Each structure stands twice: as C-alpha cells, then as structure tokens.
Amino acid sequence: MLFKKKDIFFKTLEEMADTLVVAIEYFSANVVKLKDVSAFAKQMKEYESQCDHYTHTILTELNKTFITPIEREDIMALTKSLDDVLDGVEACASRFEMYHIMEHDEYIALFADNLVRCSHQIKKAIYLLTEKKLLAIREPNIAINELENQADDLLRVGITNLFSKVKDPIELIKKKEIYERLEQTTDYCEDVANTLESIIMRNS
User: Which of 15, 79, 145, 203 is deepest in the core (most CB within 10 A)?
Assistant: First the structure.
C-alpha cells in the first residue's frame, strides 16, 4: 500500500503549530524562574527564526504550485496569523532582557499559562485542518475565543493591581507594557481561530 505524501503546505503548517507549542511552553517555563534573561531571549529568537523559515517555505511553494489544498489566500492568512503569535511571544521575551526583569510576577505567569493553552488548541485545530476534519475545528476555536476573553479580564485585573501596588513609575511602565503585549498575543491567537473559521465557512 502506498502512502500519499503529505501536502507541503499542510506539513509546514503542522511544523509551525508544533514550534509554536514548544516555544510557548519554553516561554511559560522560564518566566516563572528567570535565571538568565539573555539566554532566554536568545532561545525565543531562535524559535521565531524557525517560524520565519516555515513562512518562507510556504511563500516559495505558493509561487510554484498551481493547485493548493485550500485557497491560496487562506494558506497565506493562516501562515501570517501563526507567525504573528510567535512574533508576539518573542517580542515579550525580548522585553525581559531589555528591561532586566528577573523577579517572578504572578500575572505574567498567568498570561503565559493562558498562551500555553491557546497554543495547544491552535495545534489541535491545525492538525484537524490537515486531516480535512473541518467542522471539528469549531471546538478548539471556541476554546481559543474563551481563553482570549480570560486574557482580557486578566489584563484589567493585572493593571489595576499594578497601579495599586507599584510605586516606582518606571517599573509600572515596564510591567504594563509586558502585560499588554501578552494580552495582544492572545488576540493573535484569536486571529488564527478567526482565519480557521473563514476556511470552514468556505470549504464545508
């Protein structure tokens, strides 16, 4: 029995989703115990470069492939939204290095945990897409939307807490920016879900 080789687009999207999970789990594990912020930022940059490489692969293949498994613009939109998530997390990691943030922060840890959950749902959705189980994608999509709502609440509570507890205005600015960037990254996760939703609408 011959196995059909997996489509290059689907295969690369799966690799992007896998990298996303690994990168965000690394991010989450390290923000709770930052020992070496430079090494942390550098590793996150490597994950981000890996994702850029996958994006490049997809763009190159789109330029030379006539028939694609789903609409070309859907492949493009999905690739971009996955890349945005990793860019968002990497931008947060670089702030830890720039601002010399070493101490544990419960809200950052909660945001990181939220992003880990989002990344697992994204991976689940991408694998369902590559198996052409389109309607099943609705379930992880709903989970991503709920996680994004939780992140909105977390941002409100976190910033309220900052203004009540942190007296140093510089510290406050640093932390507020990181919270906002983390929340924005959950918005990027929701963009992935929205892109998948439009793929379901068009193909089912």
Answer: 79
pTM: 0.95
Please give the domain boundaries of the chain with CATH numbers for all domains.
Answer: 8-203 (1.20.58.220)
Which one has a higher pLDDT value, 137 or 5?
A: 137
In angstroms, rounded to a whole number, what is the distance separating the alpha carbons of residues 98 and 56? 28
pLDDT tens, residue by residue, 118-127: 999 999 999 9
**C-alpha triplet 101, 106, 110: angle, nearest 5°:** 110
For residues 142-148, give the mean pLDDT: 98
pLDDT of residue 3: 44
Contact 40, 72 (CB under 8 A): no
**Residue 71 DSSP SS3:** coil
Buried b (16+ CB within 10 A) or exposed e, 116-137: bbbbbbbbbbbbbbbeeebebb
Q: What is the pLDDT of residue 32?
A: 85
CA distances from 145 to 106, 141, 186 (A): 22, 6, 9
* Dist. CA 152–CA 28, nearest whole Å: 18
